[in-house]
Structures are given as structure tokens and as C-alpha cells.
Write a structure and sequence with these properties.
115 residues; mainly beta; 4-stranded antiparallel β-sheet
């Protein structure tokens, strides 16, 4: 019995059990930018499920500043994006939650600053 289980574990596609993690973003993590972006995008290292994958941007007072249209990109399901209005200078916090195709949820946050 142990041998059968070990054999199954060796031949399972481990990629199927991987969580997704951010690869890069626009604006970049911790960046200081001159011009306000019209959207925030995060590229992940795997495919996302649209349901439960979210992206929010908050100003320094904690108010959400997005158009609340966070979505997984239809053409590239490894991209999570949200549009934002023209923002004044300040520090902004991006919170994200990403549901991988295998059902594992990861989440995180980062900041960017508009000068």
C-alpha cells in the first residue's frame, strides 16, 4: 500500500498543486512614479480563476480609489487588473487575492507612490 501511494506521488503533476504568486506589476512594487497610472496590473506565474481573484487600491486614508472593476484579463488569465481614476500625488496600497486554477488562494499587498 505504501509503495502504491509513493508511486502515485512521484507521478502526479506537481504544477497542478502550485499556488500562484506575483511575477511583476505595473506600477512596480515600491516604485515612485511621476505620472498617475490609469490602471494597476499584476502578472502572476500561473493561470487565475476569475472568481475570488480581487485587486483593490487604497489611498493613505484607507479609502478605496479603484473603479471597482477588478478582473482577470480575458486574453491572458495570468494578469489581474483594475482601472483607477486620475490620482493625486501620494502613497497608495495595493491589496490582491489570487485564486489559482487548482483552488489555492494567495494574497498580498504592496505600495507605490505618485510624486
Amino acid at each position: 500500500m505504501t509503495g502504491v501511494l509513493l508511486g502515485l506521488l512521484l507521478f502526479l503533476p506537481w504544477d497542478a498543486f502550485a499556488h500562484v504568486f506575483p511575477d511583476h506589476s505595473d506600477p512596480r512594487v515600491g516604485s515612485e512614479i511621476k505620472d498617475a497610472p490609469s490602471s494597476v496590473r499584476i502578472w502572476f506565474d500561473g493561470q487565475l480563476e476569475p472568481i475570488f481573484s480581487t485587486l483593490q487600491v487604497f489611498d493613505s486614508s484607507g479609502k478605496e480609489v479603484t473603479h471597482q472593476d477588478a478582473r482577470v484579463n480575458e486574453k491572458d488569465t495570468a494578469i489581474l487588473e483594475v482601472s483607477i481614476p486620475h490620482l493625486p500625488p501620494g502613497k497608495y496600497q495595493v491589496n490582491w487575492k489570487a485564486l489559482a486554477r487548482d483552488g489555492h488562494l494567495t494574497e498580498g499587498k504592496f505600495y507605490f507612490t505618485i510624486k
